[in-house]
Inverse folding.
């Protein structure tokens, strides 16, 4: 049975929105596209939000996306920036809902942890790990695109973990923890 799905990952923003699309087929990941929507040239917030909505819906339609993974806003001290970021995320989610996609939200720390094993990793470390995983050939100028791609890959990894947990619990096996168990359960992440 051929089990495949296409995941759109988004790093929301009102200056730059990063995105990445992966195809998961029989547990193998292939990057379909990644890039960024540059919004800094638009002055009005409403215009930026419309551009986000239009781009997300066009990506969903073009690639026949099955699921959305989006980075959750992080806590910041600037309330206006948080409000703008929340609006950008909300518009991207609304675009996905308009196409009946499942929505999966991950904290920046969870995405970094999932990709690099370190929740405090830098954007550069995340991008380098995606390169090591052979999902990209070279680092882009801006790392917002790799952040979007990382959200999609994180969702795939989290989906695998959830499926293993359910299977393990149904067989009443206890899940092992630590690096040895992680490496045993994720041989595709060893290079």
């Amino acid at each position: 049975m051929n089990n495949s799905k296409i995941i759109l990952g988004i790093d929301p923003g009102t200056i730059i929105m990063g995105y990445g699309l992966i195809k998961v087929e029989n547990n193998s990941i292939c990057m379909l596209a990644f890039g960024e929507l540059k919004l800094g040239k638009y002055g009005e917030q409403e215009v930026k939000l419309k551009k986000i909505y239009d781009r997300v819906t066009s990506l969903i339609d073009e690639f026949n996306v099955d699921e959305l993974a989006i980075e959750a806003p992080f806590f910041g001290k600037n309330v206006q920036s948080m409000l703008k970021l929340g609006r950008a995320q909300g518009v991207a989610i609304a675009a996905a809902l308009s196409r009946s996609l499942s929505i999966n939200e991950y904290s920046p720390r969870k995405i970094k942890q999932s990709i690099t094993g370190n929740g405090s990793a830098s954007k550069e470390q995340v991008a380098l790990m995606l390169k090591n995983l052979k999902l990209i050939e070279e680092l882009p100028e801006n790392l917002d695109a790799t952040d979007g791609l990382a959200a999609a890959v994180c969702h795939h990894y989290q989906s695998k973990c959830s499926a293993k947990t359910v299977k393990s619990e149904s067989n009443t096996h206890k899940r092992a923890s630590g690096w040895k168990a992680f490496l045993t359960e994720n041989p595709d992440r060893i290079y």
